[in-house]
Amino acid sequence: MANALFGLRVWMAFITLVNLSIIITFYAWLVPYFNKNKSEMSDHYEYSWDDYAFIITSPILFLAYLYSIWGQPRLHKYLRAFLMLLPALFLMGPMLRQIHLQIENAKKFNQYTPSEMEFEPFRCYGDTIDPACFVFRAYTFIPVIVGFFVLIEVFVTLLRGPLHPTKKVDF
Predict the structure, then answer these.
(1) Which of 66, 69, 109, 168 is most buried, with most CB under 10 Å away?
(2) Where does the chain cross the membrane (predicted)?
(3) Number of domains composing the chain
(4) pLDDT of 36-88, one tens digit each?
(5) Does residue 165 form part of some domain?
(6) What is d(CA 32, CA 26) in angstroms, rounded to the nearest whole number?
(7) What is d(CA 7, CA 2) in angstroms, rounded to the nearest whole number?
C-alpha cells in the first residue's frame, strides 16, 4: 500500500473513532439524560431505524479501517469499495434527511412567528457551553462529515490503489 494511501487510512481510522465515540456518547449518555428529565406524560426518545443505522455502521466503519491498515488478507479494491460505500451511505443518508427536516421545520415555524422569536435549527439556546448541546450538534454533523471522507477515501483507493491485493493469500 502506498504511503499516501496508508496515511489516508490512518486518518480515516481516527475520524471514524471520533464518530464512534460521539455516537456512543449520544446514545449512552444523552438519550437517557433526555428521558430522565421528561415527565411521565411527555414523549420519551424512541429509537427508529436510522438510530440503529448509526449504531451499527459506526463501529463497522471503524473496524473496517483498522482492518484495512493491519488486517490480512487484503481485499480486491472494487469489493472493498462496495463494502465501504454501504455503511457510509447508511451513515450519511439518514443524517442528511434529519438535517433537512430540521431546516424545513424551522422554516415552517418561522413563517408564523414574529421576527424576534425566530428559531434557528442549529443554535444552542440557554447555556452556550452546554455539553448536551455540543454532543447533539456533533451527533448531527460528524456522521455526514465521516461519510463524505469515506467517499473521498474510496475514490482515492479506486484511482490510486492496486487492482489486486499486493500480498498473496493462502487459504
Answers:
(1) 66
(2) 12-32, 52-70, 82-100, 138-159
(3) 1
(4) 766 665 666 777 888 888 999 999 999 999 998 888 777 888 888 899 999 99
(5) no
(6) 9
(7) 9
